[in-house]
Amino acid sequence: MSGFLGYLLQRLIGVMVTILFVAITIFLMVRILPGDPARVIAGVLASDQDVARIRTQLGLDQPLWTQAGIFLDDLAHGNLGISARTSDPVTQEILARLPYTALLAVVSLAVAIAVGLPLGALAAARAGSLADLAVSALVLFGISMPVYWLGLMLIILFSIQLRWLPAAGASGPLSIILPAFTLAAFSVAFIARITRSSMLEVLRQDYVRTARAKGTPARGVLWRHALRNALPPIVTIIGLQFGELLGGAILTETVFGWPGMGRLLVDSIFSRDYPMVQGLVIVFALMFALVNLAVDLLYERIDPRVRYG
Length: 309
Description:
Elements lengths: L2 H29 L5 H6 L5 H11 L5 H13 L13 H36 L4 H15 L2 H15 L15 H27 L2 H8 L4 H30 L2 H7 L4 H10 L3 H29 L7
Helix pairs in contact: 1-13, 5-6, 5-8, 5-10, 6-8, 7-8, 7-11, 8-10, 8-11, 9-10, 10-13, 11-12, 12-13
């Protein structure tokens, strides 16, 4: 087996171990929450027979280790269970919501890269100038701003006052603009900060001074030499941000009524839908792990010094 395939196999095993750990953790966590989930699902007016039936359906009438064994066996066969709230397969409901979350994350990441990367490069090229200070202030604003507050302010301005964009739902292409920009705010700031730091370090290198001494235009030095060699840490941050956007859209989807997995997770938590909560957390963890793996594999493409195996 070649070095690359060996490395890939090792990482995939690591992903499987991570998902197993996440599955066991979320299985235990949802069962130590106070209250009777069967009673919550059945409602306060339900009879004891209905509550007992739901408890049996969820397997809560069995010992904890028996429940864990059944859960892990189903997980190994790709079965995430049946939703206690809708009686539909958990996998089916997640797959129905996954495209919305993925679309929101991709658009948000595209906005973050398109805005954050040039801002960071501008701040690095003009370090200490007014432009650098302005970018630093914008970064501080983006990192400090609560997502739910920013979302509400954007709704008030663009939906209620100006009436340019829809406030909630996914009724058309315009519906994604407000949630995407809200979700991208933190990533814009983070990518800009990392880009600035990485490029400042590269701009001090000898080969950059040599390129300038040879008469290379400032723009060519900045984009062809500095940014290209500063990419590895930036790509790492972008990959991590994409994973966080996939799993961190819960507040944004709730504020804007976006029909993604984040909103489904919130609804499932309030209704104490054990199978759905477990399935969603596992899927979020899997996506995050696979994104990190993809970023690591991309390193070999952008940095010739990296060779796996």
